[in-house]
Amino acid sequence: MKKPRLFFAGALLSALACLTPAPASAGISLSITIAPPILPIYVQPSCPVDGYLWNPGFWSYGPNGYYWVPGVWVQPPRIGVLWTPGYWGFGGGVYGWNAGYWGAHVGFYGGVNYGFGYGGVGFGGGNWSGGSFRYNTAVVNVNPSVVRNVYVDRTVVNNTTVVNRTSFNGPGGIAARPTPQEQIAKQEPHIQPTSNQLAHQQQASQNRSQWASVNHGAPATAAATKTANEPRPSPQARPMSAQPRRTPAPTAARLTRPQNNPSHPVSAGQPHAAPPAKPQSRPKAEPRAEKR
Questions:
Q1: How confident is the model at residue 144 (pLDDT cuts 50, 70, 90)?
Q2: Is the Cβ–Cβ distance between 87 and 28 less than 8 Å?
Q3: Dihedral of CA 244/245/248/253: which sign?
Q4: What is the pLDDT of residue 67?
Q5: pTM
Q6: Is pLDDT larger for residue 253 or for residue 185?
Q7: Does the pLDDT at position 281 exceed 60?
């Protein structure tokens, strides 16, 4: 079997270059001679944290060939930015990877229909309003008990009966060119993928069930049910839980003191041990009555 040739932009790039996408200004960061598989069909998990944005799944490439990076909800690097997904583009006999980036506006992503607001041009899944993100529940799924800043705009829904699952732009793929707005967005300042996004991608590259050579285009995990970020509730809960831990002894000590030190069980785990102390004063009154 003939192995695909790999062409890298720069001498320092290796087969692991796709694990660390180059800055958006660098353009194509990886090129190979085999087309990526078609996009799998999957259900988007609900947004678990208000303010998180959807990072659609995509095919990346590593030492073991193509592998699927699951779609995931991620925390943007700052308020007001949107995610432009990366895409494969075919030209000159090779397929080149254009890395995604954060920016004030969504740029060109090859016309690839990643779904959930990314229909090929722009993003219809929501928008920023002041310091909050508004979710368009016509195309994205959210947890209503957590995310309540929502609206419904069905005009962004693609009602075509045939869904193009092609995952690359160019001859034999999607024939799309950047719009004037996307050209402007390309020239705007960009922010590279966050460390959590890169870690999420690296984990996918090491999971055999995500490799196209193993799953034949049907990855075991198409979308992640957990976010790519450390959960926000943890840092907020620490100050609250830190106070009760400082007053009493550590958990292990509280479990052992009632057994080894009978003088402390009153505060440790026997809240009803205090009442017996009061009846001890009553016998003193009875003897007094007998003496009198």
A1: very high
A2: no
A3: positive
A4: 98
A5: 0.70
A6: 185
A7: no
Write down how long the chain is. 292
List b or e across 28-37, with b for residues whose CB sees 16 or more CB atoms inside 10 angstroms. bbbbbebbbb
Measured in whole angstroms, the distance separating CA 235 from the mean position of its chain's CA atoms is 18
Q: Do 69 and 6 contact (CB within 8 A), yes or no?
A: no
| Residue 88 Cα to chain centre, angstroms | 21
Rounded distance between C-alpha atoms, residue 292 and residue 290, angstroms: 5
